[in-house]
């Protein structure tokens, strides 16, 4: 993905370089993972990118904007696991 970090340290994703992430030989659409994240009532916005991984080739990494500060990483992971 293409993005930038502003002078306040805020990260902005502005475009997508490629549409699929290749995980263990499977094509994964970041947009589908973002849709799952956005279905959580406490997630205001989400972006998923592929990052290099020695075992799988790539793996998805999610960045979320929380609707409130009470949501934590463990709760997001639990929500994703429950969605599969």
From TrEMBL:
Listed GO MF terms: CoA-ligase activity
UniProt cross-references to InterPro entries, sorted A to Z: AMP-bd_C, AMP-bd_C_sf
Chain ranges of the AMP-binding enzyme C-terminal domain: 32-81
Domain of life per record: Eukaryota
Protein name as catalogued: AMP-binding enzyme C-terminal domain-containing protein
Organism: Oesophagostomum dentatum
